[in-house]
Amino acid sequence: xxxxxxxxxxxxxxxxxxxxxxxxxxxxxxxxxxxxxxxxxxxxxxxxxxxxxxxxxxxxxxxxxxxxxxxxxxxxxxxxxxxxxxxxxxxxxxxxxxxxxxxxxxxxxxxxxxxxxxxxxxxxxxxxxxxxxxxxxxxxxxxxxxxxxxxxxxxxxxxxxxxxxxxxxxxxxxxxxxxxxxxxxxxxxxxxxxxxxxxxxxxxxxxxxxxxxxxxxxxxxxxxxxxxxxxxxxxxxxxxxxxxxxxxxxxxxxxxxxxxxxxxxxxxxxxxxxxxxxxxxxxxxxxxxxxxxxxxxxxxxxxxxxxxxxxxxxxxxxxxxxxxxxxxxxxxxxxxxxxxxxxxxxxxxxx
Length: 351
Ligand SMILES: [Zn+2]
Ligand SMILES: [Zn+2]
Known about the structure:
With 351 residues, this protein is α/β, with parallel strands linked by helices. The chain has helices spanning 47-54, 57-62, 105-108, 149-152, 155-165, 182-192, 206-215, 228-235, 251-259, 282-287, 303-313, 332-341, and strands at residues 7-13, 21-26, 35-45, 67-68, 72-80, 92-95, 98-99, 119-120, 132-136, 140-142, 174-178, 198-202, 219-221, 241-246, 261-269, 292-295, 323-328, 346-350. It has two domains: 7-154 and 319-350, Quinone Oxidoreductase, Chain A, domain 1 (Alpha-Beta Complex), CATH 3.90.180; 166-295, Rossmann fold, CATH 3.40.50. A hairpin with a 7-residue loop joins β1 (7-13) and β2 (21-26). One zinc ion is lined by residues 46, 48, 71-72, 156-157.
């Protein structure tokens, strides 16, 4: 019998202002029939958490303090509701963070990642920066016991990268990744497994350019010093790349990335743009070049999780270079500082 305490440590957004606080809160022990209580081993910091920490415009519109932050984790099931049947106490789990309604058109047609009534862990409800989290059974993912706790905690952003990249095949193709933030870096690791011909990465941050090179990018470009379009031309015999993986959310990266695509190529856009009104020359960059553009949000549920789970279980990915910092849970301020300065890959907090 596992003894579950009444109180726990949690990193909360206490007030509608910059910052976060370590607090003692109640363990969410009251479980609905399909709820599961998970004891958290490791939880990673996402760009979304940084937005909430910094209290930017998006956070102000979406978060209602006080609330426990965080959504990426791995842990162990310690209690289950009456009707839970997919997991049991003792299972090593992670979780999808998009909680679908199960009833709308998208949910019923294999597209629950774009559910019309989507709720997000750590955004619409208390999250994973805590010793325990309550989640509905429908989003849980059973990890293979051989996967490291820390690696298992980053499967949500890793899934973003996998979804973005594998929406069409990449084998034997020249690929450009614009933006080597944590998800871009995870993407580079994924692309290394996929038989890509040449992998070009553009990134303005020198720390992350170095990481991209270390992880295995063939060519790394600083687009604030060289023309990305010229480098891509030079590296691809003047043809341009077959695939653009846009991870930066930067308008110039998007337009230069599309201009770097060979006619008939494919672009997958995961980066989110600050400016809602991004203008591109659709005629020249897309229509006359017959480019296919995919908007990517979240992970395909649960196709992406099967791919990510299998890649980790079979040791096809090495996340040791991408996860640059494993910090003690209580040292979260250091994590946010590193994220804000961009002097990191993925950061994981260990409980
Ligand atoms: Zn995330
Ligand atoms: Zn739905």
